[in-house]
Amino acid sequence: MSELLCTEGLARIETVSGRGMITLKGELESRRFRNVLAKALDLPLPGPLSCAFNGARGVGWMAPDEVLILVPGEEVPEALARLRNKIGDHHITAVDVSDARAQFRLTGPGAREVLAKLSPVDFAPARFAPGTFRRTRLAQVPVAVWQKEEDVFGLVCFRSVADYVAGLLVNAAAPGSGVGYFASGG
Amino acid sequence: MLRLTCPYCGAAADETELTPGGEAHLTRHGPGSSDEAFEGYLFLRKNPYGVHFERWRHAHGCGKWFHAARDTRSLQVFGTYSAQVTRPPQDIIDRIAATHPGFDWEAGQ
Ligand SMILES: [Zn+2]
After folding, report:
1. CA–CA distance, B54 with B74 (Å, rounded to integer)
2. What is the pTM of this model?
3. CATH architecture of A19-98
4. Superkingdom of this entry's organism (chain A) (predicted)?
5. Which terminal residue of chain A has fewer beta carbons within 10 Å of its beta carbon, N or C?
């Protein structure tokens, strides 16, 4: 389901299609919010600037009142139903936003450097490690980027700028363009 | 280059990830106020060469508005704090006083 954009150069870059995304908004500090995530989807509540995964499911911290849940596309209706069942009439909202954003995956030891070329975030391995989730700016557009495991990064942007972001990533990963800024890749 | 730590998500945000919101701690004067008060609220700003309190939004991040205290001359950042307050927290006022002896927040309002 995914389209390979680039295999040579600094990183392997692909679009990830068919992923389901659900926005869950509410008071993150409340026990209710934590319980909804845990009981409906067996996911922990991530702290600020972080994400957590449980198999094919993941959850990232977007704002003090919002998390982004990642599930396989076909699981969205069931996940939404389970969330709403646990929410009941409490003031928490769950909405399917799968079509709002496009998702990318960057893999390889140079992936970190590709992102660092395009964003003001400190991507040094000590500062951006597996489990880090950060909303930021990629060139001229907002994105959210996270590290799932060593040398594997995920990224979402609004679908309207997906072509722009794909072009940015492929260009920043062009063969021979390594800077070698981080010891682990480049 | 200005870097401010967002008090809501803790990110050390680059200036390009932020949207400036102008002077902080303005008192709103709306319908029923005098022309002078309304003009002051709408147009008149301190624009100091020194200690300044500002509003910023972590636009390319968690999206929240927050307050920042910094020196526009030295570019020293004294700290960032919640947008849900009408005066800076005491620890930030103390930090300003350390480099600006006798700093009086109330007197500047
Ligand atoms: Zn923030």
Report:
1. 15
2. 0.92
3. 2-Layer Sandwich (3.30)
4. Bacteria
5. N
